[in-house]
Automatic annotation (TrEMBL), chains A, B:
GO terms for molecular function: copper ion binding; primary methylamine oxidase activity; quinone binding. Residues 123-219 form the Copper amine oxidase N3-terminal domain. Residues 245-453, 464-625 form the Copper amine oxidase catalytic domain. This is Amine oxidase. PANTHER family: AMINE OXIDASE (PTHR10638:SF68), COPPER AMINE OXIDASE (PTHR10638). Topaquinone (TPQ) is generated by copper-dependent autoxidation of a specific tyrosyl residue. Residues 1-23 form the signal peptide. It comes from the Eukaryota. The keyword Ubl conjugation does not apply. The keyword Magnesium does not apply. Its EC number is 1.4.3.-. Keywords: Copper, Disulfide bond, Glycoprotein, Metal-binding, Oxidoreductase, Signal, TPQ. Residues 230-250 are annotated as: Disordered.
């Protein structure tokens, strides 16, 4: 088993102002492209580049989001503000990457710009080219020989494409590593790789350009790898008793198209082929100021960096950028009602696209539900003689959930909203480990460091040339006026990070703000001169702050497949721009060191991390002071009592 | 507002062995003392020290828990193992602290030992002596003058007792500081102190031994300090919709006396006047080994250290050890059904005692309930051509909850059990801030550091003698063979801590163990030569490991009021005892830096921290692989569908 570290970058653009937020018009300017709009993009591009004479594949078709000031103006005066409706298409046309912006407002969509990307890095992979690449070994002579030599059944071989990273080459072709697995006896392919093979496919040539068989390593047994219920034998257990949730007044939230109202919150649920779920324009109603106040302009997962911790040939290259290379939207899976989300959930569908530009529906891509959330606040007063009392309020939270499955791992992404003003994004990991084939039946046979279940994650600097990896450590700095000041590792030392608006004060003069209560820091394990770490340099710190720039969306760069780390958060901030009293973006890096254990086999129980954006002198006082506990209801037929 | 830091020490004695756990006999040897047993302790002590001729007050009456090996033997063979039943009473008799052990097995209780404590430090305060001390100022001339001078109404003054700490004195009397508050117009006394006064009461003399009026500082206004629902005016909001929970098959847990069975878990709920809730003998059923396996011998909050961060006369002394000075059990409050715990909760009562040794009931001291707990594990398989599928399991968790209110703060303590083997203790903070009176209406009036809403918690070393405080910083070390090796700050650097039994291996040879996934470290803010930090030295690291010793229960010492830090975890571990391959105790320190914000006024929304004890090669594979999702049930009358 190779251990992995998942580092997730949340980007949250936060700002505070006091304009009224009005209800949504039917067409919200941040709504994702409709099926019809995706088709118009495809047709428009194909009109310019007919497929009869061009090799054309789409790697991104999404909303080209309008300028922020226009969105904010629209939010204030939706009836009198015209917002442009544009799409961005990223297509590979005759092996060149095109960025095409299309105006969707007119009946006939118009190409506004068409630029060729000439730098390093390639767009998100399409599903079709992954399918084509993974079919190649099955008809490739040397691979068939390797399979035979191992005594394996070719008809049970299943292959998968893996981005191959960057390790210092001056230039790259658009290649992927293909790894193959055994599908016989169990569908748990991920734990049964055919190890010892290097298969490199050039996606433009769509041919195997490098093949190596480094020798036979036995494929793991299929025993105990099955996890489907239909293939399990009794006894089942432990038994879990059912819980039914009933909301006699119905749910407390309303979804109108993509706009959500719940309790004192309003926000927009967007969906992007690359980012997946996007939360925008979150504002909270201030009971004392009698108006909605903006909290979050836009929040989403900007990148997910998954560097496996194993320097050997089978694994060293596995330094994935799941959002940029595979697409969090493209990899979003349908939620299973009553299981992935509770029975009181409502669901939203989404559309992504395939390589031909055809819309692909994802039914139940997002769910929204309310959940009992413990105690909101309480106090038992015993300090006043003869006048003891207790005041306690029960809390209901709102959760927005989506699940992204990239290969073996399932990422459960929850955005939790609290009436007290907090937003708590969480990411939890489940799914299956990727297993490395080693010829070892018992741990006693392990002689040197086999990159197995390590309980210490100490940095190891590789000096003997046995790997392309190097290593990592970092120290802490403090907050303030410029981008460099804001590069910090919060949580390592006493300190709190608040994002404040020095132009807005509370009644008693505190700066209006929100505080980041971070997830426990997940320290990178690579040296900062290691190639994967150059590409994933956003993990050098867990907090970054930049001045808002509409084009700085992807912490690992727009073109992250084979990127050289030239377009990253770490590079942008080298300008050390002024952030004081600016419209800023807060980037928070959170992560999970997944050191595998036997409990993760054959499928792993959830491992979670979360952080909190908590109002801190944003309100003049406790914003839920006057919130009643939900009325207590009993099952019908039982006496109904009401308490507050 | 003075900022506080709450550092909680959880002590978890973990061990792994493979004996069968049998069901409980009616009288579990770890059951708390019954009301009748408390009375027998009182009568037995009073027989030796008649109150007619002795000043006698009880400061602790609790179970003197049996030796661990006897408990384990009883657990294996309850019908043939005789377990002693003994009580420990700590009483102050004629100003001397007695530790009296009483045998409760015989009809006539017998005093087994009676030792006088002659070192530094005093027992937990009794409620009665706090009441007596806080009544003193109201009839004390100089105090009445101070109240008059301030134009305040004496009949609205309410006082409270605060332990006064230790600041280097060679010897201490048993004194408390008394602070008084205004109760007129609002019961939120904590935000309305009468500042500028020093009132020191000697508890043995029960008289004011020091009084100082340092000058008038206005008492804060009562405006907006009210939080009782009955005194709030409309509009209320935001509105929360009700949720009813129905369990058609009833709850999934059973409580027999103090023993809980739920899904694959069994454990015992104890209750101690000092520790409050105690979880013991937690074992989990292994579906593959067909037996219960021990996980946790005993888990409880050993101490809670609350050093306020304000070096001035009104606040410097506030360095509370809430468990040892006020008693977590004595300060446990009754839970409000349907509000503090959901409607599907079951409740346990508890008994503590008063200073005269009379039992005091705490109805609904602990609640136990099941809660929908997100996804247990899942995977959507898209890598196998033409054979996509999804497997997902919904999770139900068990929560054991208790709430401890010490003065202004309410501590909500949850122990969460997961069928996947994790135990997740959490502590959340609510209640009311303690406010310092300052003559400031707006933040602009603040000239120097007023210890208000600081967003940076940088250590400040006090060198000008203006306070008795000094300061803090620490570095990191690594795990292993002796107590010194195990003093670490986990979370500051890449690393994972597993507690393993090297004598027990999984089938493939990994050491059987549990891993600590820590809460985000709460770094102490004091220097290690500062007196409060000497007493609270257990916060120097967030992980400590000691060899099991039945007497080492309280990380801050048995007698913590006025303690000099001579009987602490930091002192015990100076012996640097061997911990390798021993029966060990894991101590984890977690904390909440509470930097107050206006949202915390007049009562603060919950602020939480939690950690996870997660099986790591404890099981041979995922222990919930064959757990079904709870059957889906709909509200009666709706079509009932079943899914797994």
């Amino acid at each position: 088993m190779a251990s992995t570290m998942k580092l997730v970058l949340f980007s949250a653009l936060m700002f505070f102002s006091f304009q009224a937020v009005v209800s949504d018009t039917p067409q919200h300017p941040l709504n994702p492209l409709t099926s019809e709009e995706i088709i118009r993009v495809r047709n428009t591009v194909q009109e310019k580049y007919p497929t009869s004479s061009n090799r054309l594949s789409f790697h991104y078709i999404g909303l080209d989001d309008p300028e922020k000031d226009i969105i904010l103006q629209w939010e204030s005066t939706p009836n009198t503000t015209t917002v442009p409706r544009k799409a961005l298409a990223i297509a590979i046309i005759n092996s060149q990457t095109h960025e095409i912006v299309i105006d969707l407002q007119k009946e006939n969509a118009i190409i506004l710009s068409d630029n060729i990307h000439r730098g390093n890095g390639f767009p998100t992979l399409s599903v079709a080219e992954q399918d084509n690449a993974t079919a190649l070994p099955l008809t490739y002579g040397p691979f068939i020989d390797s399979v035979k030599k191992r005594g394996l059944n070719l008809s049970e071989v299943v292959c998968s494409a893996f981005t191959s990273g960057w390790f210092g080459e001056a230039q790259n072709n658009r290649t992927v590593r293909v790894e193959c697995f055994m599908n016989e006896s169990s569908p748990n392919i991920w734990v049964r790789p055919i190890s010892g093979l290097t298969i490199l496919v050039d996606l433009e040539l769509m041919t195997i350009v490098e093949y190596e068989d480094r020798g036979i390593i036995p494929v793991a047994t299929a025993n105990n790898t099955e996890y489907r219920l239909s293939h399990q034998k009794p006894p089942f257990g432990p038994k879990q008793h059912s819980q039914a949730t009933h909301q006699p007044d119905g749910p407390g939230f309303q979804i109108s198209n993509h706009s959500v109202s719940w309790a004192n919150w309003k926000f927009h649920i967007g969906f992007d082929p690359r980012a997946g779920l996007v939360i925008s324009l979150a504002s909270i109603y201030d009971l004392e100021k009698h108006k909605s106040r903006r909290v979050l302009y836009k929040g989403y997962i900007s990148e997910l960096f998954v560097p496996y911790q194993d320097p050997t040939d089978d694994f060293y290259y596995k330094t994935f950028f799941d959002a940029g290379e595979f697409g969090f939207g493209l990899s979003t899976v349908s939620l299973v009602p009553n299981l992935d989300c509770p029975s009181n959930a409502e669901f939203l569908d989404a559309y992504v696209h395939d390589a031909s530009g055809t819309p692909v529906p994802i039914p139940n891509a997002v769910c929204v539900f309310e959940q009992y959330g413990s105690i909101m606040w309480r106090h038992t007063e015993t300090g006043i003689p003869n006048d003891s009392f207790v005041e306690t309020r029960t809390e209901v939270n709102l959760i927005v959930r989506t699940i992204v499955t990239v290969g073996n791992y399932d990422n459960i992404i929850d955005w939790k909203f609290k009436t007290s003003g907090s937003i708590i994004p969480a990411i939890a990991l489940s799914g299956i480990l990727e297993i490395k084939g080693v010829d070892i039946k018992h741990k006693d046979e392990i002689k040197s460091d086999q990159h197995g279940t390590l309980t210490s994650l100490k940095t190891v600097r590789v000096t003997d040339g046995s790997s392309k990896r190097k290593s990592y450590w970092t120290t802490e700095t403090e907050t303030a006026k410029s981008e460099n000041d804001a590069k910090i590792i919060i949580g390592n030392a006493p300190g709190e990070l608040s994002v404040v608006n020095p132009n807005k004060k509370t009644a008693v003069g505190n700066d209006v703000g929100y505080r980041l209560i971070p997830a426990i820091p997940a320290h990178p394990l690579l040296t900062d001169d290691d190639y994967p770490q150059i590409r994933g340099a956003f993990t050098n710190f867990n907090v970054w702050v930049t001045p808002y720039n509409r084009t700085e969306k992807w912490a690992g760069g727009l073109y992250v497949d084979h990127s050289h780390g030239e377009d990253t958060l770490a590079v942008w901030t080298q300008k050390n721009r002024d952030i004081e009293n600016k419209d800023i973006v807060l980037w928070h890096v959170t992560g999970i060191h997944h050191v595998p254990a036997q409990e993760d086999f054959p499928i792993m129980p959830l491992l979670s991390t979360a952080f909190e954006l908590r109002p801190t002198n944003f309100f003049d006082r406790n914003p839920v002071l006057k919130t009643l506990s939900p009325k207590f209801v009993k099952w019908p037929g039982c006496p109904n009592t009401t308490t507050h």
